[in-house]
Amino acid sequence: MDAIQKIGVFTSGGDAPGMNACLRAVVRKAVSIGLEVVGIRRGYQGMIEGDFVEMDAKSVSNIVQKGGTVLKSARSKAFRTVEGRKLAAQNIRDAGVQGLVAIGGDGTLAGASIFYDEYQIPLVGCPGTIDNDLYGTDETIGFDTALNTAIENIDKIRDTADAHDRLFLVEVMGRDAGFIALHCGIGGGAEMVLIPETITDVNEIKHHIYSLMSSQHRSSIVVVAEGDETGGATQIANILRADSAFENIDLRVCILGHTQRGGAPSARDRVLASRLGVAAVDALMAGHANVMVGIVNNEVKLTPSRNVWSRKKSISYELLGLTQVLS
Ligand code: F6P
């Protein structure tokens, strides 16, 4: 295969704070070694529509500190079809792009490995999702910022919960994973944390919350991951309200939702994203294809894209134990 002279870069799936910092690193590293760079707007959807823009070092000025993604993002339904991917591959080849850097989460990496199997266009992924649920990296781009946003909000909820002696069920993001919930539960001093990785026993929860609220605690915060198998904070609130033992307990639900996806990336996310962006270009130039770059134990590590989404990243059971001891 000819040496790579032109690469394409895109952000895809749910946006994450730090995606811009990663994009900047990809572009600046590529330009520094004489590559041409094409930005692909709206992820795989833009690839299908040929929505490309030439990029140089200046196009990524003043974005390291910005949330969202200047290339925009999408969850492309069309890319799930054979015809969609065929069109995407054609557009990539017509543009003279010989290698791709994808910044996104599990859906992005799953799409990447199917695309590579079909068209063998070298692709290196950078883990970008607030959920932190990607195998092959200790942390994903956006997780730290989302966590800090969630904790900041939990602190605020704590003030009002305490003022009114209320029970709050705070729902945080994490469709399939409880990393945000577990970490912000510990950092925010939650009395309980409910996550999809563990079985939620509703009777046990009722018992625990009831004894907390009727003894030393006059206010409590329960952090619920949106992907918890009970169905989330609203469903748990309905179950509690239906129980006569809870009729004198004043309870409220707060869903933090997409606030966790926005905002300026934290220092930690900016540094992580910058390291991964550069590492992705290095990996492409070293001849790697269909891999994701990650940081494991503070070192760059490459993982086959397929493993990233087919293997499950484990939560820390040590941290889970802490939530029980500290409540
Ligand atoms: O990007 C991950 C994530 O934020 C999940 O935690 C959440 O379930 C999902 O995206 C929401 O996606 P959307 O914004 O497309 O509804």
Assign an overall shape: elongated
What low-confidence regions span 5 or more consecutive residues with pLDDT below 50? none
Strand order of the largest sheet: 3-2-1-4-5-10-11
CATH topology of the largest domain: Rossmann fold
Ligand species: 6-O-phosphono-beta-D-fructofuranose
State the end-to-end distance: 58 Å
Number of distinct helices: 11
What's the β-strand tally?
11
Subunit arrangement of the protein: single chain
CATH class of the largest domain: Alpha Beta
Can you give a write-up of this model?
The protein has two domains: 182 residues, 3-Layer(aba) Sandwich (Rossmann fold); 120 residues, Rossmann fold, CATH 3.40.50.460. The strands form two sheets. A seven-stranded mixed β-sheet has the order 3-2-1-4-5-10-11, with helices on both faces. It is elongated, with a radius of gyration of 22 Å. It is built from eleven helices and eleven strands. With 327 residues, it is α/β, with parallel strands linked by helices. The site of 6-O-phosphono-beta-D-fructofuranose (F6P) has 11 residues, from loops.
